[in-house]
Amino acid sequence: MSDPAPGGDVAAAELLTLEDVERAAAAALPAGVRDFVAGGSGRERTLAANRAAFDRVFLRPRVLRDVSRCSTAAELLDRPVSMPVAIAPVAYQRLVHPEGELAAARAAKAAGVPFTVSTLSTVPVEEITALGGDVWFQLYWLREPGRALELARRAEDAGCTALMLTVDVPWMGRRLRDVRNEFTLPDHVRAAHLDGGGASAAHHRTAGASAVAVHTGREFSSSLSWSQVAELRASTRLPLLLKGVLAPEDAVRAVEFGVDAVVVSNHGGRQLDSALPSVEALPEIAEAVGGDCRVLLDSGVRSGTDVLKALALGASGVLVGRPPVWGLAVAGEDGVRRVLGLLAGELADALGLAGCATVADARRLRTARGGAAAGERRRAVVR
């Protein structure tokens, strides 16, 4: 597989939406890498449903409110942020740009939002925290006894400000694009926190399979349960997030285990195909936990208006995964800055037009559901 170019020469004026950035990245990347980042599992029903679900949410703007000083500033996990957005963990970012996670983390620091380091990062966590930003660490529970807790301690010692345990990957979902491509990591892209940063099964082509899935199948534990959550909670002083929660019952139990935040997520449509869209699951989970823990939303966020919708539906903030990677592919650090700048500008615009001077105001907005199903319900009421 040929290496992707370190960035594109697309003018910023041509990148007016995150969809524009995605199209530019798709044109710049090798097909296999593009599919690895963009693809979902199975028939990609959940991947498509994430966006369709956001499109069905409509806001009830308020009027006659002073929005002359509209601010996107907020707090995530009791730390100030420029907007209620964090960069989600995404594996192997040197697939799309030579600097990988380093460039994305610098952009996040400049934008004033947290950056989440993946267990499958191509850059060691210590190099990323050395940049000085607000850095979270995402943890997969590993088969090797004690290895996950060692990584958690390493992240805490490095200066990370939160730990995010991913709980929806007993094994990697069947991502058919990668299977058809027999996707294999190029030699220069390594998992810095696994295998001593050396070559692994992910670098050896496997007929009729994704080499990355083969590798993670050997590394990830499928026995993760609440007992490991308790073990992790007892081992760290950092705020603990569980990522991959879609059932209110699991969110309530997370509170009982001392979790600080749940991330409502279907892994961007990359795990169980036909899993509920995250934004559909959000209101019930937010209601179930009340104020006992924070609720963040992941999967499908593609605009500042999407961020506003998530806030109105009960989220404390959102994670964005693919869009920063698209930006990284297009123009490295500048591309990620562009993505975050677009989100900030769109959120400020949406807040003001909805009659909200602050993020706190947004959480009091009311929403309605649109689309054919809502139309049928309205006609039934009229009758």
Blueprint of the fold:
Elements: H1 18-28, H2 31-38, H3 45-55, E1 57-60, E2 74-76, E3 79-81, E4 85-87, H4 101-111, E5 115-117, H5 125-129, E6 135-139, H6 147-158, E7 162-166, H7 176-181, H8 211-219, H9 226-235, E8 240-245, H10 248-256, E9 261-264, H11 278-289, E10 294-298, H12 304-312, E11 317-320, H13 322-353, H14 359-362, E12 366-369, H15 372-382
Parallel strand pairs: 4-11, 5-6, 6-7, 7-8, 8-9, 9-10, 10-11
Antiparallel strand pairs: 1-12, 2-3
Helix pairs in contact: 1-13, 4-13, 10-11, 12-13
Describe the protein.
42% of the residues lie in helices and 13% in strands. It is globular. By secondary structure, it is of the alpha/beta class. The strands form three sheets. The protein has an eight-stranded parallel beta sheet. It has a two-stranded antiparallel sheet with strand order 1-12. The protein contains 15 helices and twelve strands.
What distinguishing features does this structure have?
alpha/beta; two-stranded antiparallel sheet; 15 helices; 42% helix
How does the overall form come out from the CA principal axes? Answer: globular
How many helices? The count is: 15
Q: Uncertain regions: pLDDT < 50 for 5+ in a row?
A: 1-8, 372-383
Classification by helices and strands: alpha/beta
The percent of residues in helical segments reads 40-55%
> SSE string, helix = H, strand = E?
HHHEEEEHEHEHEHHHEHEHEHEHHEH
What is the radius of gyration computed over CA atoms, rounded to a whole number of angstroms? 20 Å
Oligomer: single chain
Strand order of the largest sheet: 4-11-10-9-8-7-6-5
Largest sheet features: 8 strands, parallel
pLDDT averaged over residues:
94
**In total, how many beta strands?**
12
Q: What proportion of the residues form beta strands (DSSP E)?
A: 5-15%
**How far is the N terminus from the C terminus?**
60 Å
